[in-house]
Design a protein that fits this description.
Elements (H helix, E strand, L loop, with lengths): L11 H13 L2 E2 H8 L7 H14 L2 E6 L2 E6 L3 H16 L4 H10 L5 H15 L5
Antiparallel strand pairs: 1-3, 2-3
């Protein structure tokens, strides 16, 4: 049975799990647990529960292979990034992407090199590569 996609955002823990699944391309609970345990020790049952919830929310799909479920991303990473940024821009910056970028540019941790990369991306998007 196909699950209805939940348009909500992932929780912090779910995002950590989803990042592992995106990086791996998919895997069994044991595969995903092994990757997650490189960062922080987790119980098998906890990982299985979170993965099942993420499947119910529509972020993952699963298929039975031998005696295990193999989980795969149902939402591409780029699509989730786009949705998350739109949500952030809408809720925190009153729907003004320029305000989000301004806050990012004002961040002291953003280096000149990072700013140059941003400029290059903007120039490319605007079709102004003659700088």
């Amino acid at each position: 049975m196909r699950k209805k996609h939940d348009t909500s955002l992932l929780t912090e823990v779910e995002l950590e799990f989803m990042t592992v699944v995106w990086d791996m391309g998919g895997g069994t609970v044991r595969d995903i647990l092994a990757e997650l345990n490189k960062m922080q020790e987790r119980a098998y049952t906890s990982v299985a529960t979170v993965l099942k919830i993420m499947e119910q929310k529509g972020f993952l799909t699963s298929e039975r292979k031998d005696r295990s479920l193999v989980y795969r991303p149902a939402v591409p990473k780029a699509e989730y990034q786009k949705t998350s940024l739109k949500n952030l821009s809408s809720k925190l910056f009153n729907g003004a992407p320029a305000a989000l970028v301004a806050r990012l540019v004002d961040d002291e941790d953003v280096t000149d090199e990072m700013l140059e990369e941003m400029r290059a991306l903007l120039d490319e998007r605007l079709g102004d590569n003659e700088r």
